[in-house]
Amino acid sequence: MTQTETGFLHRTWDSADGLRLHARDAGALGIARAIFIGTSMGGLITMELAALAPALIAGAVINDVGPVLAAEGLARIASYVGNAPMFDTWDEAASYLERQNKHALAHYGAQDWRAMAARMFREEGGRIVADYDPAIAAAFGTGPLPADPWERWHGLARGRPLLLLRGGLSDLLAAGDATRMMTEHETARLREVPNVGHAPMLDEPEALAAINEFLDEVP
User: Fold this and answer.
1) In the chain, is it the N or the C terminus that has fewer CB atoms within a 10 Å radius of its CB?
2) Are the C-beta atoms of 211 and 201 separated by less than 8 Å?
3) pLDDT in tens, 124-154
4) pTM score, two decimals?
5) pLDDT reported for residue 13
6) Nearest Cα residue to 67 out of 140, 148, 168
7) Which residues share a beta bridge with 124?
């Protein structure tokens, strides 16, 4: 099951309603227990879901996010999330994504940016528009968090097999914080994806190898 966050992403993070929706969807599909893979906000949602429905999560892969988010990365994300302009062509959309993300994905070529554009935008009324709820930007604000982030992390990692991936160039998850996240959790492991910023696309050889090894070992 792949759970995407589009029309209700912003309320999923700051409300239990969206989390209950995830749990309900899993139940409707007959999934009583699963391994979750969460990138960025998906990782934060996984931490929250572990508090709401702990029996559902057998293990998790958390991709380049944690209980401490670096101010530099937050400021960068907040500067463009929810503010994507409309475009006349797919090439324009791809160029926009390249400008926003080339520091993190320096190895990407023209076809890669075009493929990313196809995942993140859609055609509507003859224009190319962002394919997500712009209100997602609210999740990157400075308001109070719904719970202690470290408490949420420990609640997820305690007693569960867990893989934390960090982009070697990440400006959102600092190396020291990633190392600290491993403390006290013998079933957690940390792997770094070199030469990639926030966030690894999970198609990198190092990321795929780490994920496959993790999945092979999870009971």
Assistant:
1) C
2) no
3) 999 999 998 776 766 665 555 567 899 999 9
4) 0.88
5) 46
6) 148
7) 127
d(CA 72, CA 91): 29
Query: Structure tokens of 171?
Result: 């400006």
DSSP sequence for 40-107: THHHHHHHHHHHH-GGGEEEEEEES--SS--HHHHHHHHHHTT-PPPBSSHHHHHHHHHHHHTTT-TT
Query: In this predicted structure, what is the pLDDT of residue 138?
Result: 64
Q: How many residues does the chain have?
A: 219
Which residue type does 140 have?
A: F
Q: Kindly report whether the peptide bond that precedes residue 210 is cis, defined as omega within 30 degrees of 0.
A: no
User: Rounded CA gap, 135 and 12, in Å?
Assistant: 11
38 CA to centre of own chain: 5
| SS3 category, 182 | helix
Distance of alpha carbon 29 from alpha carbon 27, whole angstroms: 5
The DSSP element (H or E) to which 31 belongs, if any, is: none
- Distance between CA 206 and CA 107 in Å, rounded? 14
Cα(178)–Cα(165) distance, integer angstroms = 9
Say if residue 199 is preceded by a cis peptide, omega within 30 of 0.
yes
Q: Which parts of the chain sit beneath pLDDT 70?
A: 1-17, 135, 137-146
Q: What pLDDT shows up at residue 140?
A: 61
